[in-house]
C-alpha cells in the first residue's frame, strides 16, 4: 500500500524511494516521514500497514526516527523493542504494527533534516547491514535530487528577476536599435518556442507586466515600476488571463512558463 501523496513537492520522491527500498530488500514495510519543527510525521508507506502507524507524529530525540533526526545519523536495530539505545515511547505502536528489526536514515539538505526513510521487518534479524545500505543509498540519492532541484529553482528565480529588469531597461531606452538588443537579451533567458508553435502572442507591454507579475509584484507595484496607471495594469492582467486561459495570477505565471514566455 503506497502513501497518499500530498501537495508536498517532496512526497512523490519519498514514495518512489520507499518503493525502491522495498523491492531491493524485500522488507515487510518501508515507510517515511517529513521532518518539521516539532518532530517527524509518518505519512508515506510501501507495504501493508496493519496497526496505528499511519499519521503518527514522533517527537525529536524519541524512538528511532526521532533519534536519527536529532543526531543526523543512520541507525539500524536487530530488534526495536529490545534495544537500549533509544527511548521506547512508541513501543505500543511498534508492537501493534508487529515490527521488530528496523533501519532509519535521515534525508539532509543544506545541513537540515527534511525527511526520514525507514525499512522494517516483522521478525528480529541478526544482520541489518544490507537493509541499512539500501535505505542509505536511497536517502543519499534523494538528497542529491533535492539539492539539484533547489539549485534549479534558485537559478530560475534569478533568471526571472534578470528578465524583468532587462525588459524594464528596454522600456526606458529611446535608441530603437539598443532597445531591440536588450529585448533580445531578455528573450535569451526564456525557453520560447518558435513563433508558429507558441500558443499565445503577447504585446510588449503585456510581456513587461507578465515579467513583473512572475516576481510577485502587486498591480500598484507594477504600475510604479512601469510608470503607468494601476487601471492600465489591471487591463493588461485581464488580457493575460484571457490569452493564457488562466483563472488566477498564479496560473498566468504557470501557463506562461509552459509556453516558454518566462524563465
UniProtKB/TrEMBL annotation:
GO biological process: regulation of DNA-templated transcription
GO molecular function: DNA binding
Coiled-coil ranges per UniProt: 132-179
Gene3D superfamilies listed in its UniProt record: 3.30.450.40, Winged helix-like DNA-binding domain superfamily/Winged helix DNA-binding domain
Native species: Aeromicrobium camelliae
Protein name: LuxR family transcriptional regulator
Coiled coil among keywords: yes
Keyword line: Coiled coil, DNA-binding, Transcription, Transcription regulation
Higher taxonomy: Bacteria, Bacillati, Actinomycetota, Actinomycetes, Propionibacteriales
CDD domains the record matches: LuxR_C_like
Residue intervals of the HTH luxR-type domain: 195-260
